[in-house]
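Progress against Task 2.4 (sequence-to-structure conversion) is shown through the following example record, which the project officer requested during the mid-term review.
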Amino acid sequence: MSGTAIAVSILTLVAGVGVFLIACGMMSSNLESLGSKRLKSLFAKTTGKKLVGVGVGAAATAAIQSSSATTVMVIGFVNAGIMTLTQAATVIFGANIGTTITGQLVALGMFGNSAISSSVVFAALAGIGAFMLAFAKRDRVRKVGGILAGFGMIFVGLSLMSGAMESFAANDGVRDFLATFKNPFLLVLIGALLTAVVQSSSVMTSMAITMTVTGLISLNQGVYITMGSNIGTCVTALIAGIASGRNAKRAALIHFIFNVSGVIIFLLVGMFMRLGGTDYGHVFQKIFPGVPQTQLAMFHTVFNVATVILILPLTNLLVKLVTKIIPDKKTEIDKDAPRLRYLDEHMLATPPIAVQQTKNEVVAMAQTAFDNFVLSCEIASTLDFARDEEFRANEKALNYLNRNITAFTVKLLKCELDERDRTYLTTVFKTVTDLERIGDYAENIVEYAEKLRDGGERFSEDAVTEIAALRVLVQSLYDNALKAYVGADKQALANAYVTEESIDDMTDKLSENHIARLSSGACTPDVGALFLMLTSNVERIADHLINVAKAAQYGG
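Structure tokens generated for the chain above:
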């Protein structure tokens, strides 16, 4: 084999790996975007049941064709505090099963010895998908085209890798050199390092299948390289965990320990098999004779399923272990400090999920804003400042949420999104501002209460009764506004408009009542002025709530 031929083969191999990586990313992003709603509901079904978590992890990974994306997504959920470590562990276990689908697809594509093999047929889908991307106008059709193009390109990349490896396999020197790598531990290390470099166990497994089919390596060598790829794929999650909170670090460590444990178990079993004069290669050759691509793909599936079966009953012990390895610090965080409940930077890796979590964060902010409105009315009516500290903490949280939800949304808008999600996100900026302004008006009402207290005065019983009635209407408006915002409920939006008009009418009526009380001497001009300012602030709060309700028409 000449130097030129070797260079060409190396370049072809690099090209094949590159096309394969791009194809996986293209198919993954379009699948994720097209199935965003199902993906959202899928993760919502994660419960305390371990098998459900495994099923969700496997289904999500099979849907988006990326165990790394699923794991990073889970780490984001744990970091945001919306998924427990036990739930995260089971989803991560399931992700390892879901990722074996790629290997099975690659094996399927390598069948056929005729001029038209299954690989060529699948690769042709790249052209069909490309035409759909070029000429389709509907966003959904374009995404389907992207999926087909990505799927087809996987086999284009596979064909390039296969061609390069066939050239290497024809060289006795290359085959003899690779044959010297028989030590299982060394092969596992090679698989782990190469996977860490390309950051895709799917690519490494596919390369191992191709090398086995072309005769470049033995099936047994491919088995141990595939084992190593399961360790190498942990790198992405570990990197994600390093920059995250303590629980996120624990989730990344669970992923690493799980995969390493599986490799250790299978290495030990492999040692006993060798003592008995056999190995994994011989076993799978007997089970699936004459189809090396299926032999290695099935080993990968058996390896991951068996590891889940063995480790799943030990999930609670594993959670306790990582908690001891990464213990809580007694003075780690201020529990009362403002924080994002649902958002985490790592969620940007899965934009459709991040959009839903953004909406959840906005809804949580709305609840905080409304809680402060209720508190402000109670303080103004009773002049009891016992919960003033809670009020101040909420106000601080609203300012924090306004800044940080806005900052996250800016980053999310730079990701690949469908038109509906992108339109919704553009409304978030105004919505969080509306909610922050509700907090400001509530703060004004508390300041009016402070003036009453400092002046030794208070609202009359009639005024307190009117404030309570006004608060009931605002409660109804808030309930309908949130119902409209969360579920795009048109009837709730219509109800919100009616209630907002009722609030306007009531504040006008309260102004008339105030004038009557002034005339009768039931209240002083100073107290009356504060009452009018309070009702004016409530009316403005209603205006901001109706703005929140209006955002429902833009979806999300």
